[in-house]
Design a protein that fits this description.
Distance between the termini: 53 Å
Number of helices: 13
Strand order of the largest sheet: 1-4-8-7
CATH architecture of the largest domain: Orthogonal Bundle
Helix content: 25-40%
Order of helices and strands: EEHEHEHHEEEEEHHEHHEEHHHHH
Largest sheet: 4 strands, mixed
Strand content: 15-25%
């Protein structure tokens, strides 16, 4: 695709665009308004596999298409686009980045590098920031978040959209295990108002789950995990009745929950890290795939960026060996 070709949604009633981006965005830390989130999702859904996207690629979103996709009045659509033009440029996202010397760290970047509201045409034009593009374009990794735009179009809570994206990242497993601390960090809810788990539950989690259950094909439930008397984690269990037609991940997890049971081969056939390293890359990847699905966001991001090479970092290798229950 030419670098200066404008991209837009065509015939939104007849197509069901897919939103496909790196899992790193699902695990990133950021806050957007509902309109800003919707515009980002619409723009990402315009990207087609194999198309070149650069910082010069403009994404056009008309008030008419916005109105149709999200089922709101055209006047409200014009208003939303005009308001978003004033604020979207200043929105930032914190991403986990790998550094050969420093290891894993947060990187702060804007979502977009430019935005223009074209009043005469009733449309908004935006260009993604260079740092964001690798996470939304030319994606080859199996570590992807994939969903239909229509599935999120009925969600009117930013938190519902974020939770939905976190869940579909684990679609093949049907289960998300996350600490309260990481959940707060991803949604930027570390202010005093959300220090109490009761506020987090009633003002964020309950509302988000209610919308997801009522307005999408997903049914989700949450179990809270306590350490002594304090709630420190959440386990979201969910089922999605809608299949991704025409889409398949590069790797299939076979719908098994890696958080419930490890392979018996961990102990019976591989005794230490040296023996593990003698396996073929395919066999090593099979074990590592199961490991990263139970690990922290740092680990998942490192594997997504470096593949098996992430084990060269001592802290990741140590965590993996502990999970494999290798002999010391």
């Amino acid at each position: 695709m030419s670098k200066d070709v404008e991209k837009n949604v065509s015939n939104p009633k007849k197509v069901d665009p897919m939103v496909i981006h790196s899992n790193a965005l699902s695990e990133a830390s950021y806050t957007l308004t509902l309109t800003e989130q919707r515009l980002i999702l619409m723009a990402i859904s315009m990207i087609r596999k194999g198309e070149e996207v650069t910082g010069k690629t403009p994404f056009l979103i008309s008030a008419k298409d916005y109105s149709t996709i999200f089922s709101i009045g055209i006047n409200n659509a014009y208003r939303d686009l005009m308001q978003a033009e004033k604020s979207l440029f200043n929105r930032v996202v914190w991403l986990y980045e790998s550094d050969d010397e420093e290891g894993m760290e947060f990187t702060k970047t804007r979502w977009i590098q430019s935005v223009t509201y074209k009043k005469a045409q009733g449309e908004i034009s935006l260009r993604f920031a260079e740092k964001i593009i690798p996470y939304i374009s030319d994606l080859e990794s199996s570590e992807l978040t994939v969903a239909y735009l229509s599935e999120m179009s009925g969600l009117t809570s930013f938190y519902a959209i974020r939770l939905y994206a976190m869940l579909i990242q684990w679609r093949s497993v049907g289960r998300l295990n996350i600490s309260v601390e990481e959940f707060r960090t991803r949604l930027e809810l570390n202010s005093a108002g959300y220090n109490q788990i009761s506020n987090l539950k009633t003002r964020v989690i309950d509302i988000a789950m209610k919308q997801i259950n009522e307005r999408t094909s997903m049914v989700v439930d949450c179990e809270y995990v306590k350490t002594r008397r304090t709630i420190t984690g959440m386990v979201f269990s969910f089922k999605d009745s809608r299949e991704l037609v025409g889409w398949s991940k590069a790797k299939n997890t076979k719908n098994k929950d890696p958080q419930l049971k490890k392979s018996s081969e961990n102990n019976s056939k591989i005794r230490n890290y040296e023996e593990f390293m003698q396996l073929s890359d395919q066999r090593k990847t099979e074990f590592v795939d199961k490991f990263v699905q139970t690990a922290s966001a740092f680990v998942r991001f490192a594997f997504n960026k470096k593949g098996l090479g992430f084990l060269e970092e001592e802290s990741f290798r140590s965590e993996f060996c502990k999970w494999m229950e290798f002999e010391k």
